Amino acid sequence: MSRTGKSTVGQAICKYVAWLTGVPFTLWHTCANEIEYLEKIKIPNITYGSSFLIDEQTETHAGAGSYTEMQVLEDMSNIIAKQQIHTVWVHPHEFVGRNSQLGLECYGKNFEHLLVRCILYNISVTSLSKTPMGMVIIPVGWLFHCGLFATPTVYNGRQTIITCIKDVCPRYGKCQEFMAQYEYKKDKQIDMIRTREFGEREMNRLDIIQKISEDENFQNCKSMDERIGVARLLVPYGTPEKLIVENSKMAVGILKGRINLESLKAMKSAKTTEGKSKDELKVV
User: Fold this and answer.
1) How many structural domains compose the chain?
2) How far is CA 172 from the centre of its chain?
3) What pLDDT was estimated at residue 132?
4) Strands 51-55 vs 30-31: parallel, antiparallel or unpaired
5) Based on the domain organization, do 177 and 96 belong to the same domain?
6) Which residues on adjacent β-strands are paired with residue 106?
7) What string of DSSP letters covers 18-51?
């Protein structure tokens, strides 16, 4: 569910663990998805006892390689357990299996006392139905030092309360509080995903195909299996297996002169420009 306080509870837990361990929890430790998380925990000098928040992970795995991708994450979680890497997963749909022992389901906010009410579950035991262990109250007011949070105000002619979101908080985008910067960063990520056009995504895919075709190891491969193996190392982590195979075949077509990559890029660029022009005319 949305707007239940999941992210705020996750931040509160990470901040509390950081206070216990003495290892700072910073904006860098918040990850938009598990791919970003995997990239960060691969850094050799991560401090023992660090905390990470994977926010709003949506589990969009698909293709023949999805099992392998998930297994990598499970194996990585087992390996880093010795280093006491604390990880909180904020998932909008259901509990996720990441060797987690406990799960919290947010189901109520108290704006007067700045509390979030949660149901506690033991998710380390697989069963058809989860029996709650009890109720947990998470205080979140201490995350907001500005004194404005949860203060009644009027927004667009309707009474509401001030939160760290655009147009509601007068300090939005300028506040130096951790939660304010976190919300600002999250909004930027959402805007980037929401406003990216399909034409831009297709252009990015063509860039990846070009990268594969220009790789010396790929060019020296003797079989399609070898080419797919090399291409898998060149594409972004989490790319579905079917798309890797398709990109590999496209790269072979480019190498053999059957496909003109520059022509495809020019065509896509022209379509994107035309689409933007039509949108501008509609606005006018």
Assistant:
1) 3
2) 22
3) 85
4) parallel
5) no
6) 118
7) HHHH-----GGGEESSHHHHHHHHT-TTPPTT-E
Give the span between the Cα atoms of 252 and 214, in whole angstroms: 10
In a shared domain, residues 242 and 259: yes
Listed residue (179, 13, 194) closest to 88, CA to CA: 13
- How many whole angstroms separate alpha carbon 6 and alpha carbon 196? 26
Give the pLDDT confidence of 152-175 residue by residue, as tens digits.
887 777 778 888 877 788 888 888
CB-CB neighbours of 34 under 10 Å:
24
The pLDDT score that the predictor gives to residue 178 is: 86
What is the biggest distance separating any 2 CA atoms in the chain, rounded to whole angstroms?
Answer: 68
Domain boundary among 161, 195, 229: 195
Q: What's the pLDDT score for residue 248?
A: 94
Q: What is the pLDDT of residues 188-199, one digit of tens each?
A: 777 766 655 555
| CB 119 within 8 Å of CB 105 | yes
Q: Which of 200, 171, 185 is nearest to 271 (CA)?
A: 200
Any idea how long the chain is?
A: 284
Cα separations in angstroms, 137 against 7, 55, 83, 111, 120 = 15, 20, 29, 13, 10
Q: Which residues of the chain have pLDDT under 70?
A: 1-3, 56-82, 92-94, 96-99, 126-129, 192-201, 237-238, 271-284
What's the pLDDT at 231? 94
Q: What are phi and psi of 135, to 5 degrees?
A: -115, 140
Domain of residue 221 covers: 198-278
**Structural contact between residues 232 and 212, judged by C-beta atoms closer than 8 angstroms:** no
